[in-house]
Design a protein that fits this description.
globular, metal ion binding, single chain, 239 residues, binds protoporphyrin IX containing FE, mainly alpha, L-tryptophan 2,3-dioxygenase activity, Methane Monooxygenase Hydroxylase, Chain G, domain 1
Protein backbone atom coordinates (compact mmCIF):
# COMPACT_ATOMS: atom_id res chain seq x y z
CA UNK A 1 0.00 0.00 0.00
CA UNK A 2 1.66 3.24 -1.18
CA UNK A 3 -1.36 5.60 -1.06
CA UNK A 4 -0.11 7.56 1.89
CA UNK A 5 3.31 8.28 0.39
CA UNK A 6 3.74 12.00 -0.27
CA UNK A 7 6.67 14.13 -1.37
CA UNK A 8 6.79 15.55 2.15
CA UNK A 9 6.87 12.29 4.08
CA UNK A 10 8.95 10.27 1.59
CA UNK A 11 11.78 12.81 1.88
CA UNK A 12 11.15 13.42 5.58
CA UNK A 13 11.16 17.12 4.85
CA UNK A 14 9.75 18.11 8.23
CA UNK A 15 12.82 16.59 9.87
CA UNK A 16 15.26 17.77 7.20
CA UNK A 17 14.08 21.37 7.25
CA UNK A 18 14.04 21.50 11.04
CA UNK A 19 17.80 20.95 11.17
CA UNK A 20 19.03 24.43 10.18
CA UNK A 21 19.43 26.23 13.48
CA UNK A 22 21.50 29.42 13.38
CA UNK A 23 22.98 30.27 16.77
CA UNK A 24 22.59 34.00 16.15
CA UNK A 25 19.62 35.31 18.16
CA UNK A 26 16.74 35.94 15.74
CA UNK A 27 15.66 39.60 15.88
CA UNK A 28 14.87 42.29 13.31
CA UNK A 29 18.29 43.99 13.54
CA UNK A 30 20.13 40.65 13.24
CA UNK A 31 18.18 39.50 10.16
CA UNK A 32 21.14 39.68 7.77
CA UNK A 33 23.41 37.72 10.13
CA UNK A 34 20.77 35.04 10.79
CA UNK A 35 20.26 34.56 7.02
CA UNK A 36 24.03 34.39 6.42
CA UNK A 37 24.49 31.85 9.19
CA UNK A 38 21.65 29.74 7.75
CA UNK A 39 23.41 29.91 4.36
CA UNK A 40 26.67 28.74 6.00
CA UNK A 41 24.89 25.85 7.78
CA UNK A 42 23.08 24.72 4.61
CA UNK A 43 26.33 24.79 2.59
CA UNK A 44 27.92 22.44 5.13
CA UNK A 45 24.91 20.17 5.59
CA UNK A 46 24.41 19.81 1.82
CA UNK A 47 28.12 18.96 1.45
CA UNK A 48 27.81 16.27 4.13
CA UNK A 49 24.82 14.75 2.28
CA UNK A 50 26.76 14.59 -1.00
CA UNK A 51 29.79 13.17 0.85
CA UNK A 52 27.52 10.39 2.09
CA UNK A 53 26.61 9.43 -1.47
CA UNK A 54 30.19 9.72 -2.77
CA UNK A 55 31.56 7.51 0.02
CA UNK A 56 28.83 4.87 -0.50
CA UNK A 57 29.50 4.81 -4.26
CA UNK A 58 33.26 4.52 -3.82
CA UNK A 59 32.89 1.78 -1.20
CA UNK A 60 30.70 -0.12 -3.70
CA UNK A 61 33.47 0.29 -6.30
CA UNK A 62 36.07 -1.09 -3.87
CA UNK A 63 33.78 -3.99 -3.08
CA UNK A 64 33.29 -4.75 -6.79
CA UNK A 65 37.05 -4.58 -7.44
CA UNK A 66 37.65 -6.89 -4.48
CA UNK A 67 35.03 -9.52 -5.21
CA UNK A 68 35.42 -9.96 -9.00
CA UNK A 69 38.31 -11.20 -11.14
CA UNK A 70 36.87 -10.22 -14.52
CA UNK A 71 35.11 -7.33 -16.25
CA UNK A 72 31.54 -8.49 -15.46
CA UNK A 73 30.98 -5.46 -13.18
CA UNK A 74 33.27 -3.08 -15.00
CA UNK A 75 30.64 -0.86 -16.70
CA UNK A 76 28.87 -0.42 -13.35
CA UNK A 77 32.21 0.56 -11.81
CA UNK A 78 32.67 3.17 -14.55
CA UNK A 79 29.19 4.55 -13.82
CA UNK A 80 29.86 4.80 -10.08
CA UNK A 81 33.26 6.43 -10.55
CA UNK A 82 31.83 8.94 -13.03
CA UNK A 83 28.97 9.73 -10.65
CA UNK A 84 31.40 10.27 -7.77
CA UNK A 85 33.51 12.57 -9.96
CA UNK A 86 30.38 14.54 -10.89
CA UNK A 87 29.30 14.82 -7.25
CA UNK A 88 32.72 16.10 -6.22
CA UNK A 89 32.21 18.77 -8.89
CA UNK A 90 28.89 19.58 -7.16
CA UNK A 91 30.75 19.95 -3.83
CA UNK A 92 33.15 22.35 -5.52
CA UNK A 93 30.34 24.45 -7.06
CA UNK A 94 28.57 24.63 -3.70
CA UNK A 95 31.75 25.98 -2.13
CA UNK A 96 31.97 28.73 -4.73
CA UNK A 97 28.49 29.90 -3.61
CA UNK A 98 30.10 30.78 -0.26
CA UNK A 99 31.94 33.58 -2.08
CA UNK A 100 28.60 35.35 -1.55
CA UNK A 101 28.77 35.07 2.26
CA UNK A 102 28.97 38.68 3.53
CA UNK A 103 32.25 39.23 5.37
CA UNK A 104 30.76 41.33 8.19
CA UNK A 105 28.03 38.78 8.89
CA UNK A 106 30.56 35.91 8.92
CA UNK A 107 32.80 37.82 11.34
CA UNK A 108 29.78 38.27 13.63
CA UNK A 109 28.51 34.68 13.77
CA UNK A 110 31.96 33.03 13.55
CA UNK A 111 32.52 33.60 17.27
CA UNK A 112 29.50 31.36 17.91
CA UNK A 113 31.22 28.40 16.23
CA UNK A 114 33.65 27.80 19.09
CA UNK A 115 36.22 25.27 17.92
CA UNK A 116 33.83 23.59 15.45
CA UNK A 117 35.64 23.17 12.12
CA UNK A 118 35.42 21.30 8.82
CA UNK A 119 38.61 19.57 9.95
CA UNK A 120 36.34 17.50 12.23
CA UNK A 121 34.25 16.19 9.30
CA UNK A 122 34.39 12.41 9.75
CA UNK A 123 32.99 11.87 6.28
CA UNK A 124 35.67 14.03 4.69
CA UNK A 125 38.35 12.08 6.61
CA UNK A 126 36.82 8.86 5.33
CA UNK A 127 36.81 10.11 1.75
CA UNK A 128 40.42 11.30 2.08
CA UNK A 129 41.43 7.82 3.30
CA UNK A 130 39.56 6.07 0.46
CA UNK A 131 41.03 8.26 -2.26
CA UNK A 132 44.56 8.56 -0.87
CA UNK A 133 47.02 11.29 -1.85
CA UNK A 134 50.24 11.86 -3.77
CA UNK A 135 52.32 10.14 -1.06
CA UNK A 136 50.04 7.24 -0.20
CA UNK A 137 47.51 5.32 -2.31
CA UNK A 138 44.18 4.59 -0.61
CA UNK A 139 42.01 1.44 -0.78
CA UNK A 140 40.33 2.68 -3.97
CA UNK A 141 43.55 2.58 -5.98
CA UNK A 142 44.91 -0.48 -4.17
CA UNK A 143 41.76 -2.49 -4.93
CA UNK A 144 41.91 -1.31 -8.57
CA UNK A 145 45.52 -2.48 -9.08
CA UNK A 146 44.83 -5.81 -7.32
CA UNK A 147 41.81 -6.37 -9.61
CA UNK A 148 43.86 -5.51 -12.70
CA UNK A 149 46.56 -7.99 -11.65
CA UNK A 150 44.04 -10.77 -10.87
CA UNK A 151 42.44 -10.33 -14.26
CA UNK A 152 45.80 -10.89 -15.96
CA UNK A 153 46.75 -7.32 -16.90
CA UNK A 154 49.15 -4.66 -15.68
CA UNK A 155 48.24 -1.04 -15.09
CA UNK A 156 51.16 0.12 -17.24
CA UNK A 157 50.10 -2.20 -20.08
CA UNK A 158 46.53 -0.88 -19.96
CA UNK A 159 47.73 2.72 -19.83
CA UNK A 160 49.96 2.10 -22.87
CA UNK A 161 47.03 0.71 -24.86
CA UNK A 162 44.99 3.83 -24.13
CA UNK A 163 41.56 3.84 -25.75
CA UNK A 164 42.11 0.29 -27.09
CA UNK A 165 41.94 -0.95 -23.49
CA UNK A 166 38.15 -0.40 -23.62
CA UNK A 167 36.46 -0.51 -20.24
CA UNK A 168 39.83 -0.49 -18.44
CA UNK A 169 40.61 2.77 -20.23
CA UNK A 170 37.28 4.23 -19.10
CA UNK A 171 37.99 3.23 -15.49
CA UNK A 172 41.42 4.89 -15.61
CA UNK A 173 39.87 8.04 -17.11
CA UNK A 174 37.16 8.09 -14.43
CA UNK A 175 39.75 7.68 -11.64
CA UNK A 176 41.78 10.59 -13.02
CA UNK A 177 38.64 12.76 -13.32
CA UNK A 178 37.72 11.89 -9.75
CA UNK A 179 41.24 12.74 -8.52
CA UNK A 180 41.28 16.03 -10.40
CA UNK A 181 37.85 16.98 -9.06
CA UNK A 182 38.95 16.16 -5.52
CA UNK A 183 42.01 18.36 -5.92
CA UNK A 184 39.91 21.20 -7.43
CA UNK A 185 37.56 20.96 -4.42
CA UNK A 186 40.53 21.29 -2.04
CA UNK A 187 42.06 24.24 -3.93
CA UNK A 188 38.62 25.88 -4.32
CA UNK A 189 38.11 25.61 -0.56
CA UNK A 190 41.40 27.42 0.09
CA UNK A 191 40.71 30.19 -2.42
CA UNK A 192 37.16 30.70 -1.09
CA UNK A 193 38.35 30.92 2.50
CA UNK A 194 41.24 33.31 1.79
CA UNK A 195 38.66 35.67 0.30
CA UNK A 196 36.61 35.66 3.48
CA UNK A 197 39.30 35.27 6.17
CA UNK A 198 42.64 36.15 4.53
CA UNK A 199 45.46 34.60 6.52
CA UNK A 200 43.43 34.41 9.75
CA UNK A 201 43.76 31.12 11.66
CA UNK A 202 40.94 28.55 11.55
CA UNK A 203 38.36 27.78 14.26
CA UNK A 204 39.91 24.29 14.39
CA UNK A 205 43.22 25.81 15.52
CA UNK A 206 45.23 25.50 12.29
CA UNK A 207 47.00 28.35 10.48
CA UNK A 208 44.12 28.28 7.96
CA UNK A 209 45.03 28.81 4.29
CA UNK A 210 48.73 27.80 4.59
CA UNK A 211 47.81 24.59 6.42
CA UNK A 212 45.10 23.68 3.91
CA UNK A 213 47.32 24.46 0.91
CA UNK A 214 49.92 22.04 2.27
CA UNK A 215 47.21 19.36 2.32
CA UNK A 216 46.10 19.80 -1.32
CA UNK A 217 47.25 16.72 -3.12
CA UNK A 218 46.61 14.98 -6.44
CA UNK A 219 45.89 11.27 -5.87
CA UNK A 220 46.63 8.37 -8.26
CA UNK A 221 50.27 9.36 -8.86
CA UNK A 222 51.05 6.17 -10.80
CA UNK A 223 48.36 6.93 -13.40
CA UNK A 224 49.77 10.45 -13.88
CA UNK A 225 53.28 9.09 -14.22
CA UNK A 226 52.08 6.62 -16.85
CA UNK A 227 50.45 9.51 -18.72
CA UNK A 228 53.77 11.32 -18.84
CA UNK A 229 55.47 8.22 -20.26
CA UNK A 230 53.00 8.20 -23.17
CA UNK A 231 54.75 11.33 -24.47
CA UNK A 232 58.22 9.79 -24.51
CA UNK A 233 59.47 9.04 -28.00
CA UNK A 234 56.41 10.50 -29.71
CA UNK A 235 56.51 13.49 -32.02
CA UNK A 236 54.23 14.84 -34.71
CA UNK A 237 55.76 15.31 -38.13
CA UNK A 238 55.77 18.96 -39.20
CA UNK A 239 56.07 20.17 -42.76
C1 LIG B 1 33.01 30.34 4.88
C2 LIG B 1 33.20 29.06 4.67
C3 LIG B 1 34.37 28.25 5.15
C4 LIG B 1 35.50 28.65 5.81
C5 LIG B 1 35.91 30.07 6.23
C6 LIG B 1 36.30 27.47 6.07
C7 LIG B 1 37.50 27.46 6.73
C8 LIG B 1 38.25 26.34 7.02
C9 LIG B 1 39.52 26.34 7.71
C10 LIG B 1 40.26 27.57 8.21
C11 LIG B 1 39.92 25.06 7.81
C12 LIG B 1 41.21 24.55 8.49
C13 LIG B 1 40.91 23.90 9.80
C14 LIG B 1 40.67 24.92 10.90
O1 LIG B 1 41.65 25.39 11.49
O2 LIG B 1 39.50 25.23 11.15
C15 LIG B 1 38.93 24.24 7.17
C16 LIG B 1 38.99 22.87 7.04
C17 LIG B 1 38.04 22.12 6.39
N1 LIG B 1 36.85 22.57 5.86
FE1 LIG B 1 36.27 24.45 5.64
N2 LIG B 1 35.65 26.39 5.53
C18 LIG B 1 34.47 26.81 4.97
C19 LIG B 1 33.52 26.05 4.33
C20 LIG B 1 33.57 24.68 4.23
C21 LIG B 1 32.54 23.85 3.61
C22 LIG B 1 31.23 24.33 2.96
C23 LIG B 1 32.95 22.59 3.74
C24 LIG B 1 32.17 21.40 3.27
C25 LIG B 1 32.07 20.29 3.94
C26 LIG B 1 34.23 22.59 4.43
C27 LIG B 1 34.97 21.48 4.75
C28 LIG B 1 36.20 21.50 5.35
C29 LIG B 1 36.99 20.31 5.55
C30 LIG B 1 36.61 18.89 5.12
C31 LIG B 1 38.16 20.70 6.18
C32 LIG B 1 39.34 19.80 6.55
C33 LIG B 1 40.25 19.73 5.33
C34 LIG B 1 41.50 18.92 5.54
O3 LIG B 1 41.69 18.37 6.63
O4 LIG B 1 42.32 18.88 4.60
N3 LIG B 1 34.58 23.87 4.69
N4 LIG B 1 37.90 25.06 6.69
Amino acid sequence: MTDDVTYQNYLELDTLLSLQKPRTADSADMKSIVLSEQFFIIAHQASELWLRQIIADLEAVIDAFTTTDDTSNAEWIVDLLQRSAKLIEVLHTQLTALDRLPLGDFAMFRQLLGTASGAQSEQFQRLARLVGNAQQDGPLYESFTAWVTRSGHTVSGLARRGIDAGVHYRIIEALLDLGNGYWRWQVGHVSMLTKIMGSHSGTGGTSGADYLLSRCSLPFGELRELRSQAHVGLSVATS
